[in-house]
Each structure stands twice: as structure tokens, then as C-alpha cells.
Amino acid sequence: MTMDMKEFVRASLKKVSKKVTEGSLDIHEEGYDDQEEMLLDWIWIELKEESPDKDAVVNMDLDDLYEVIEASADMYEDYRILLESIRSDGN
Q: What span, in angstroms and rounded, lies between the C-alpha atoms of 24 and 39?
């Protein structure tokens, strides 16, 4: 995983957070087992837009994405805060 990819993941997380705040993403979206899967999928979709290396993103699964987020303390903190806000708003 390149340093650049971390930055693209960080940018994608910020975009998803902004969209959730604006209400442009449906936190009650059907088809997900839980909110965490939904959030990771949203970040992955944004990452496909952000990253110039589309193949690297397409070959990434949600576990890989989670590992990138978890490896960075500040990014993980932002991720947890966003996830908690989705969970509390979604109930």
C-alpha cells in the first residue's frame, strides 16, 4: 500500500463524512448487513473516484480498506466518529 493511497483514503473518508453531514447519503440504505459495511463501501466508492490507480482500488476489498484506515490513528479516529454518528442517526 503506497503512501499516496493512504492520502486518497483520507480524502475519501472526508468526502463521505461531508456527504453524510449534508444528508446526500442515505444512512438507511438497503442491502447492507450493518452500518460499518455501508460506510466502508461508501468510502471505497469515493476512493475509486479519488485514486488515479483504479485497478488498485478495484482489487481492494473492504477488509483491505479497513486496514488502511486502522493503520492511521487520526484517520481511524475520524472513521470511528463518523461510524458512531451514522449508528446513532440510523436508529
A: 13
In the numeric block, which cell numbers belong to residue 60? 481492494
pLDDT at 2 over 90: no
In three-state form (DSSP H/G/I as H, E/B as E, the rest C), the secondary structure along the chain is CCHHHHHHHHHHHHHHHHHHHHCCCCCCCCCCCCHHHHHHHHHHHHHHHHCCCHHHHHCCCHHHHHHHHHCCHHHHHHHHHHHHHHHHHHC
pTM score, two decimals?
0.92
Phi/psi at 90 (5° precision): -80, -10
